[in-house]
Fold:
Amino acid sequence: MSPPRKRTTQNRHLPNNLYPNGKYWRYRNPITGAITSINKPMAEAIKLAKAANAKLAPLMADDGALLSLLTGEKAPTFERLLGRFEEEWLWTRGYSDRTLKEVRFKLARYRADLGPRMIGQLDVLAIAEYLDQFSNNAYTKHRGLMVQIFAFAVAKGLAERNVAELTLVKLEKEKKRQRHTKEGLDRIIAFEGTPDWLRRAIRLALVSLQRREDIVTWEKAAVDLDRNTIRVSPGKTQNYATPIHLEIVMGEALRGVVKECLASPVVCPFLIHYSPKARKREQLDAKRHWNAVTEDYLTKAFTKARDESKAYDTMPKAARPTFHEIRALGSWLYEQQGYPLEYIQALMGHADEEMTEHYQAGHEKKEVQYQRVGADLKL
Structure:
């Protein structure tokens, strides 16, 4: 069992777990974290705290083995809290594989650093001191996860309060991603190591100005080559008061990449697809179709092609543009070719309520009305 944390200068003369509380005192149970007020003079409060510490010390020894023996319950250590957090809560969040890997890496670190300590020993000061070792952005991420862990602990009756929530909130420093250049993106597309499906995804995003999540879920059924249109309902807008639905009239570049997607021999209902080398059960369960591309996989594949093509070797890795920034380059190229702002906004799904028709009232059956826009970027 880890020793109790060092007392502050003003509390150095007090026994462990006893703290001043105005004119009187409070005692924090090192096992449960429960706070008890002691409305007695200092001498009596110190005597009571020492007696309580002496009584609880054997229960805290040997990782709470005696406590387990006496009560039939496992000692409430932070390690056991982390185990329950991972088994009962983490899997319900719907995180991507990449995010889950990052969270579990952090949990493994917490087990190594704080695991044997009783939950009650981890007060605000203990968590604050632990978080202070991290830099600003890392501090923010670790604090956010700690807040979730202790919220779970409170909900399960394992802690009295969310001590992580009471630590200092720091603003995460803005990541300074550089913008794509047409030359940089062309280099990635031309790179021999870039898969064909990724080349099509890049061009589709550049010309259509749609988001990553809409690129990977865009269905072949949305295409009407006879009418030269393709429909999309941007996922991010579907929770808006007025959801946006676009019917895009395809210019030559967009029609060209869409026809390439349709001509691919790989069986899949989505425009962007690939044939994976291996099909693991857990991966299949996370996908909409066995040949579909997930958002996470698209990001990883693009990052790999970007770096291996040396398109942005002069930039630090953290500053290199991601797949998400393709949309910004596309909108800038439209602007350079003389398209008005309203045209670009409509295509990006930024249309306001007057520009976007949505579900029509007064009909027996509500129909989705598509806003007709164009995508005629010249490449």
Notes: The radius of gyration is 29 Å. The chain has three domains: 9-71, 78-166, 182-375.
